[in-house]
Structures are given as C-alpha cells and as structure tokens.
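User: Here's a protein and a ligand (zinc ion). What would the complex look like?
Assistant: Let me lay out the input and then the predicted complex.
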Amino acid sequence: MVRKIRSVPILMFMAATILSGCATTTAAEEDTPAPAQSKNTSAPLDGLTVAIDPGHNGGNANHPEIVNEPVDAVTKHKPCDTTGTETNDGYAEHAFNFEIGTLLQAELEDLGATVVTTRDSDDGVGPCLPERAATGNDANADAAISIHADGGPANGSGFHILEPEPIEGHTEEIAEPSHELALALRDEYESIMSPADYIGSDGIDSRDDMGGLNLSTVPKVMVECGNMRNTDDAKQLADSDFQIEIAHALAEGITHYLAESGA
Ligand SMILES: [Zn+2]
C-alpha cells in the first residue's frame, strides 16, 4: 500500500508532464485540488483518509443470534462481533471505544482528514468483522485504526497495540506499513500511559488471528487503550479529561505515521 500511495503523486506528475494538455481527465484532475486549497493551504491531513473502527457496539449483548454468527477471519473462524469488556464499575468498553472514536474523528477532521467510521452510534448491533475491515478497504484509507480497551488480568496494566503478522496472500502488503503505524502510535501513547506489563513487547503485539486486521487491505492496527479489568487503568479510561488525552495521542501518532509514510 505504501508503494501505491507514494506512486500517486509521481504518476500524476508524470501524466501532467508527458501528456501536458492531451487528456482532459488529466487537466480535470489537476484542477480539482485548487478550490480546496484556496481556503486552507496548511491542513496537514488534506487529501488523506483515515478509517476509525470503534470496537463492539451497545446493542451486541441483546443480539447473540447476530454477533455469535461465525465469520471467516482468514486464519480461523470467529464470531461476527463480541460484547467487549467493562470496568468493575460497569463502564462498558463499547461506550469507551465509541467516545474515543468520536473524539479522534473530530481531531482528524480538524487536521483536514476525511474520516470514515464503522459505526455512528453506540446503540446498534455489529457490524461483523469483515464489514469493519471493508470500511477502510472501500475508502482506500491511508491508515485504519480499531479502538478497544482490554479485558486483561486484574493485576496487569498498560496499553498495547495489535499489528497484523504477514500472512501470505492476505496481509503481506500491509504488515510493514501497519508496523510503522503501530510504532508511531506507541511512541505517542506512551507519553500518557505505560506499555502493557502483561502482554506484548514494548506495547506492541503481532497477531495472525485478528479478523479485522487479517481482512484489511490498508495499513491497520488495533489499539487496546488500557486494561479495563485493572483498577488504576479503569479509573483513567473512564475519566473524560484523560479520554481527550487518549484521542489526542492517537491523532498525533496517526499524523506522524502519515507524514513519514509519504502518503
Ligand atoms: Zn474490545
């Protein structure tokens, strides 16, 4: 994907140079950015698309017949979706994920990005894993992020980021750029929380069993923003001021990745 993304400006330049004026489509494409740039020339994410997937959904618990349906996650079959975890106080992961997704969307749009999301409310059901991946794929997103909070052991704390392992015929193309995205997010996120002490390595966990990652054709990671089963993490994750810090750290990480990837 990075190769493809990088080649677009070069191809457009070549087309403009070689075909100069011969093709009306080339002229039209050259003209397109002008109106958008005339108002704001400095938005850092202008022309870039980010897919946000807030994990789970508020209606999942009441619809096991839908969310328990097995779907093909490439290396195994998995349920369409799950209900997610919650804190001891009953703060649900799906609500947290949706809140962070909403805050992150606003930040990225302020930076000029086009944002597509897998759900626009917290009271629906699903969508299933393949549909969540398709949201980023269909938009040809420059980066995709799935937002979760973990249900880990109560004595474990910290965040971690799941990245796709290379799987022949599936994630080979996105594994490396996804790793870069994971590193960029990790480097920002560790300024507000420590990497997990119970899973992964330095806040990164490579996986071959995550359907949302395996089915992606664009660089994608899944962020576990903390451990909801840990009392200290739970307190932070439920704090509205800290949620703003989380969204900001994620926006910064994505922005750094996009700048370095040449997208
Ligand atoms: Zn989750």
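Summary: Residues 240-261 form the longest helix (22 residues).
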